[in-house]
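Internal QA ticket QA-208
Title: Verify multi-chain structure generation after dependency bump
Assignee: T.L.

Test input:
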Amino acid sequence: MNKSLLFKGYAQRFLRQGRLFHHLLYELEQNQKLSYSELIEYQNQKLRQTVKRAYQEVPYYKQLFDRLKLKPEAIQTVEDLQLLPVLNKSDIRDKEQQFASSRVRWKFKAFTSGTTGTPLRLYRDHFNINLEQATLWRKQHWGGFAFNDRRATLQGHMVTPADSTQPPFWQYIPAEKQLLMSSYHLSNKFIPYYLQKLRDFQPAAMEAYPSSIYRLARYMQIHQELPISVKAVFTSSEMLLDHQREAIEKYFGPVFAHYGQAERVAHFSMCELGNYHYAMDYSIVEFLPTERDGLYQIVGTTLNNAAMPLIRYVTGDLARLSTQSCPCGRPFPVIETIEGRQDDYMVTPSGKWLGRLDVVLKRTSNLVETQMIQEKLNLVRVLIVPTENFTQKDEAILRKKLEERFGLEMQIAIQKVDAIPLTKQGKYQAVISHVRM
Ligand SMILES: [Zn+2]
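Actual output:
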C-alpha cells in the first residue's frame, strides 16, 4: 500500500473542499443562468482586477506595461487585450520567478506535463486550487455524479511499481471514495483483473485518460465481455478520438470529455449532449486564426490565479469553433472540436498538413491501437498492435489507407508491436513528429 497516496487523499480534501470550495461551486452553478452578455461583463470585471494586481505585484507585467507605456487601466475589456503581446511558453521558461506575485505568500508549485522540452514551473494560490476543483465539480454534476458517489480513476498515478506482475494494480482512497488504478499495467494479461475489480467495486463514474479506458473497452469488445455501466466517464489530458469514444460509450457509459492544461488558462467541458462548452467564468479565451482554414489557436488569460497570472498565453492547442448554440441551454459558447496540439500534425514534403490521422485506424479491422511516428520529412513509421485475427489482407488495406492519406511522397514502414509505449506520465500519443515545423 502506498501510504503517501492515502495521505494525499486527506490533504487534498482538506485543502480543496472547504468553505471556499462550496462557495465557489455555488457561484459557478449560478453562472450557468447568466446570459452571454452578462458573462462578458463578468469577464471584464475580473480582467480589470487581474491586470491591476499583475501590474502591482508581478515583475514581468510591471516591466511590460512600463515598456509599452501603458497604464493597467488601459485594459478594460476583453478586446483591449490586443494591446498586449501574446505570451509563449518560451517567454516564461527559466524566468518563472518573474511571473510570480510578490504579495501572494502561500504559493503552491506545479509543473507542466508536456512531452517536449523542460516543464515550466507554475504557481497557484489557494483560491485557484479551489476554483479548479469547483469547475471540475460543476462539470461532474453535468454527468450526474454526486458528492458521495464512488469513482475509479485511470490517470497515470503511480499506484504500484511499473514492474509488478501481481494484482492489486490499484489502491482505494477512502477520503475520496476513489479507486486509483494504474495506467501502466493495462496489458491483455492483466486487464481481466481490472475488469473483475471494477465489477466488484461498482463505481458511479470512471475518470480516465481516453487511451487507458479505451484499452479496457477494446479488450471487452474483442473478448465479448458484458459492459460495466457507469453514469459518466470523465476523460481528460489527451484528445478524445472518435473511435475511442464509440467503444467507451458502448462498454461503460456516456463520455464527458474535458480539455484543460496545467497553466489553467482555458477550460472546455463536454455537456450531456456531447458538445464542448468554453467556461467563460474560468478564464478568457481568445481564438486566434492560423494558416489553416477554420482552425484557431487557443490563447488564454487567467482570471483566477493571483499567484501567477498569465495573460494571452499561447497553449499550442488548436480548436474549431461552432456557430451553433447547444440545446442544453447553457450560455457558454460551443467548441466544435479540439484538434490537439500543433505537434499532432505532420507536414508532408510538399507542405501538406495532415491531422486527425486516427481515421485510418477506424477503417481497418483487427487493430487494437496504432501510433504514427514521422521520423523524417518523407518517412513515417506506423506501429500497430494487431489482434489475433489480423491478416495480411488487413495489413494491405491499412497500407492502402495510409497511402491515400500520405500520398506517394512519403515512405510508410508498418511495424507490429505488443503495446504502444506510453509517455512518462502514462499517456498515449497517436501521432509523434520528429520533424521541426
Ligand atoms: Zn450543451
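Spot checks passed. The domain at 346-433 is CATH 3.30.300.30 (GMP Synthetase; Chain A, domain 3).
Status: verified.
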